[in-house]
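Chapter summary example.
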Amino acid sequence: MRIGKRVGAAMLPLILATGLFLLAPAALAGQGGPEGPGGHGPGFGPGIAVEKIDADSDGRISQDEISAYAARQATEIDTDKNGKVSIKELRDLEERRREAMLEKRYRAMDKNNDGVVSVEEYEQALKARFEFVPAGRGGPGDMPPRQ
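The structure predicted for these 147 residues follows.
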């Protein structure tokens, strides 16, 4: 495996760790209900991560594909282009991702597309998320009666 001039061999462990850090939420998302894997809507979950990394679409992820993906991610995160990933750059990335997810969830809750989520729309979305929680995982059937 060859590492380019911009990303030195000493940076490889950091790049790989960063790539895995960024993939962890998708890998842990699990299966979901009608809103997609993990209940976060289409495009969230393990499938999307594999598609982004599996460059030759053979259903397997090679070391070369992981290295290429990690290098792309590091380049995207390194917004000041100094060849390093700072904690601020990671925080900024996480904030952008959280904001995008929140906007997507909000649009999904706004069933009548009027730009606002009514209390009824919010309640329906919340109930729908709990309907697909498997038994033993904190779904409605697992809740003790209120006293």
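To summarize the output: Residues 16 and 67 are 7 Å apart (CA to CA).
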